[in-house]
TrEMBL record:
It comes from Streptomyces achromogenes. Residues 7-27 have a biased composition (Pro residues). The chain crosses the membrane at residues 31-51, 87-107, 114-132, 152-174, 186-207, 213-231. Residues 1-28 are annotated as: Disordered. This is Phosphatase PAP2 family protein. Keywords: Membrane, Transmembrane, Transmembrane helix. Signal peptide: none annotated. Pfam families: PAP2. Residues 114-228 form the Phosphatidic acid phosphatase type 2/haloperoxidase domain. InterPro entries: PAP2/HPO (IPR000326), PAP2/HPO_sf (IPR036938).
Length: 246
């Protein structure tokens, strides 16, 4: 018997959407959802800090008093934390890391748009940080025997916000460029230690309340999500971090 010819698959009828894809949602959708959640959490915390909600202030005070006692008693750990917070995880250090990454993108990839997007986001983070500090005007903890000092208002923590933005953006660029497993795991570990560690040092040294650090993390993550949303919006990009042209 002869095989019957297979009838060609008819094209989809006009006016009907294509069948839904079973793959993961596009990056811009994921970023949009993350931005909404992070935005709600960040605004809620900002309002609670601004109205001086008593349960939050009491929790902050309890954590601050306990960690300050530890900082006064354990001077060796305090000295190590001052080195980490003043040099390794300082906002200036983080911005220099971002500048180096932007320079590498231009030099090795000719990725001008990506480099400007990276540097611009970090610059915007600095503006947001100082603007929120000025608007909220939260005083820092005051101690009769301080182990460190800091300037400007307390909320949000600029160290926590800057570390979150820089580490988040660099991790996303690494992931998007198809970094190898070893490099990716190392980068994730370094980012987690940096973002979490800088928050611990700021509270330990008595220059921030715990909710200041949480606010820095939330606002930083929100800026990362918004930056990814801008980068991944549907358009024709001249290049991407994975190659000279995208």
């Amino acid at each position: 018997m002869r095989d019957r010819p297979t009838a060609p698959t008819p094209p989809p009828s006009p006016g009907f959407p294509p069948p839904p894809s079973s793959g993961p949602p596009p990056a811009h959708r994921t970023a949009a959802r993350a931005a909404v959640v992070l935005g709600v959490c960040a605004v809620l915390l900002l309002v609670l800090v601004a109205v001086r909600w008593h349960p939050l202030l009491a929790l902050d005070d309890g954590i601050a008093r306990a960690t300050h006692l530890w900082a006064v008693r354990d001077r060796a750990v305090t000295r190590a934390f001052r080195v980490l917070t003043d040099w390794v995880w300082d906002p200036l250090t983080m911005r220099l890391v971002c500048a180096a990454a932007a320079g590498w993108l231009v030099w090795r990839r000719a990725a001008w748009w990506t480099a400007l997007w990276l540097a611009g986001t970090v610059a915007l983070a600095a503006i947001v940080q100082q603007s929120v500090k000025a608007a909220v005007g939260r005083p820092r903890p005051v101690w009769p025997d301080p182990v460190d000092s800091a300037h400007y208002a307390a909320f949000p923590s600029g160290h926590a916000l800057t570390a979150t933005v820089v580490c988040g953006l660099l991790l996303w660029l690494l992931r998007r460029s198809g970094a190898g497993r070893a490099l990716w795991r190392t980068a994730v570990a370094a980012a987690v230690v940096s973002v979490a560690g800088v928050g611990v040092t700021r509270v330990w040294l008595g220059v921030h309340w715990a909710s200041d650090v949480l606010g820095g993390w939330l606002l930083g993550a929100l800026l990362v999500a918004l930056a990814v949303l801008v980068y991944e919006r549907p358009r024709n990009r001249p290049e991407d971090p994975g190659g000279r042209h995208g």
